[in-house]
């Protein structure tokens, strides 16, 4: 088994997070997968942005849920990256899926619905993923574990993974209880024993957000299933060095 490297919000250490330039850069450097965040606009369109408000990452202000998709996709989402030759915008999920369908990338969709429980989000996102024939290489994750349980009820074949920051006593049993096929713990919760025991129960382990070389090397040596990182190029170099 080889560890898969997921670009967290794309190649976000070098490019504007959750934008096409970041996703393209992650793909070009050889990342196995891309992790991105989905919310719903005021008019119910899935858009790719992490925060519930646009204030931090764009040249505007306001809550995503109170702005239309047309307005959101015109904002400058790369305001801190002056060197970019073209404006980085907030993409729609459909735009990303259309591009990803022409690649071999694995997709990790994080549903950002723990603060605002967007009504119908699961149905909308799952339908779109199926429309682009990407269901077999998509993993759904969320801090809202009820949402993951709902995804399983909509599509029993869907791969889901609960995100968690605080330790869960028996995470493999918890994952099974919500029909998840993996767990996505914060890296501080990951030990060699946790990886081995969880994998013995046929549950995969992918840690977030791992950016230190020493820790990346340690997790690879422990045969973790996936590493979610802001710097996929660095993680891939660690993986290549480990194989030699």
Automatic annotation (TrEMBL):
Coiled coil: none annotated. It holds the Pfam family GDPD. Signal peptide: none annotated. PROSITE patterns: GP_PDE (PS51704). Gene3D superfamilies: Phosphatidylinositol (PI) phosphodiesterase. Residues 3-239 form the GP-PDE domain. This is Glycerophosphodiester phosphodiesterase.
